[in-house]
Structures are given as C-alpha cells and as structure tokens.
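User: Hi! I'm working on a homework problem where we have to compare a predicted structure to a textbook description. Could you give me the structure for the chain below?
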Amino acid sequence: MSVTDLPRYRDLELIGEGGLGKVFRAFDATLNRKVAIKKIKTKADGGAGSQLLAEAKLLSAVQHPNIVTIHDLGRWDDELFIVMELIQGEDFETLLRGGRILYESFVPFCLQLQEAIIAAHHLGILHCDLKPANVMLSWLPSGSLHVKLVDFGLAELRREAEARTKGKLNIAGSLYFMSPEQFESGPLDVRSDLYGLGCLYYYILARRHPFDGDTPAQVMASHILHDVQPLSRLRPDLPPWLCDWVMWHIQRKPADRPPSALDAFDRFTGESYRRATGGHLSSQ
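Assistant: Happy to help. Predicted structure tokens:
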C-alpha cells in the first residue's frame, strides 16, 4: 500500500524531487484543504526513515508561525510519508531579485528566521541543512513578509548529533552553508545551525557566498581555512554592528559563535532597538 492509495489525499501533483524522496501537492478531502506530501525513500537510505519519522513526530507538536506545520505522517510497507501545510509562496531567492537588500527589509526576515531556529533548538532539534531552498516566503493580506522554515529532512536529534563519532564524513547539506565541523565529522550542536544561518545572512546581504570556490573541494577548504571577506567591506552602508553580528555566526570555531540562537536574537533586537531610538551602540 502507498500514500497514493489513501482515499483522504487526492489529486497528487509532483512539485519537487530530491535525494530522499518526492514532494507532492495534494487535496485533503477530509479537511477540505490543500497540503504538501513528502514521500521518503526509506528503503534506499537505511535507517533514515526511522529518524525522519521520529523527528516528524516531534515537530508535529510545534505550533510556531515560522516553522512548517505537520498535519499527518505514517508508514506503509517501505514508504514513509509526511503531510505538511502547503505554503503558497516563493523561496529565499525571491528576496534577491529586487536588488540590494536594505537594512529595513532584512530585519523582519532575520528576526522570523531566528524565531524558527530558537523554537526548533528548544525541542532539541538541529536542522543541519539551512540553505535558501529551505526558507519559504509568503505575504500576509496586510502585505507583511512571512518566513517559514521547511524541510527538517536532514535534521538530527541533538543527543544523536552530540554522540556522533569522528571518522565518517557527512556532506548531505549544501556545501556553501555547512559548518566546518560537518566537513570534519566533528560533533554538531546548535552553533552548527547558527553557522549555517550566518552563511544565509551573509549571502542575502552581500549577494555572494561567504565561503566560495570553483570546485566543491575549494568551497570546503574555504570553510575550513576561514577564507572569508568581512561583510562590512562589501556593505559599508550597513550598520557596523549588523555586519559584526553576521560575522559572529560564521566564526571558524564553535566557541567563538553565539552560544545559542536566543543569545543571538537578544543581541540583534537590542542593537536594532538602540538604532531605532537613536541610542548608543554597545561594544562587544
């Protein structure tokens, strides 16, 4: 039996496909709404299906406006499916089409993404695959930007990540947004996700990757050697504290990054408030 045999979900239309499976747009006949269904190739990926199912159950308890909502999940034979809200919007790259991103446009995007990561980390979940394709944008009736973090398909429960042993390279995420410890098969924690966030923020503000190269090996070397140009040199129009804040996320050593997404959020809101009220910026 497969998900396509379930009478509740009708009119399946393929809208995406990746290494772990396919994503369909469908109609939930029971609740009269459109949904997205992710079908996972569990047989091809060993224990990945069991891990994804466990994380989907954990995420299904999350009621957060900036994280995709999970409605249903299950397993039939060797096939796992996860039913999620269908986001009517566009991905992260949309923000880059209008030219240079101004500070005023970046603030709501950044704060909402930080909120999503804070909520996930509070449950002990690491995303481990933060990249533009996993950040969806939609617009509310008021015209306000709304950010949704999607696809925790490569996330790991924190206790499993911390217990990871060295010697097995895991490069499942996008090379441009992966932390050095992912390349080096080191233990991962919340600061690994914060590194990915910093790479995202740098990318949207500078319109270039902080760590780049002509080949995958060169990109990995750029991360490991911390070969990066300060954001302030590329965007001298931005507040210096904001450039420093982004660079704080992408430090080579985890100990030099924010200790948590909440700490980074508090620093950002404090500095932006001082800017809005004309107060003096604090020094780090």
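For your comparison, note the following. Residues 245 and 268 are 7 Å apart (CA to CA). The longest helix spans residues 103-122. Good luck with the assignment!
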